[in-house]
Amino acid sequence: MKVTVNISLKEGVLDPQGRAVEKSLSTIGFTEASNVRIGKQITLDVEAEDAARAHQRVARMCEQILANTVIEDYEITVEDEQ
Fold first, then answer.
1. Proportion of the chain above pLDDT 90, given as a percent
2. Which DSSP category does 10 fall into?
3. Is 65 strand, coil or helix?
């Protein structure tokens, strides 16, 4: 099953990379962009009996290695291949 994990900084955690991108956008004329936050996306192929099991396994991966759960949130999307 194809699984996508979107990881973002938790609310209230400073995002210096996002601030730098926001400033750069403004500098080149894109002043309408604000509150820029930078995250990451991870895609995986997971062998599992069903979507629920794939979600459960990837959640454990996130908790143990893919995300820093102290400062990051994650969202998992499983594409059920049927």
1. 96
2. P
3. helix
CB 36 within 8 A of CB 18: yes
Place of tokens 């080149």: 28
Strand 40-45 to strand 72-79: parallel, antiparallel, or no bridges (unpaired)? unpaired
Q: Domain range for residue 66?
A: 2-79
The number of folded domains in the chain is 1
Give the amino acid at 54: A
Pairing of the two strands 2-9 and 72-79: antiparallel
Q: Helices in the chain by DSSP H: which ranges?
A: 16-27, 51-61
pTM above 0.70, yes or no: yes
Q: Is there a contact between 54 and 48 (Cβ–Cβ < 8 Å)?
A: yes
β-sheet with 72-79: strand ranges across = 40-45, 2-9, 72-79
Residue 38: give its domain's CATH number.
3.30.1280.10
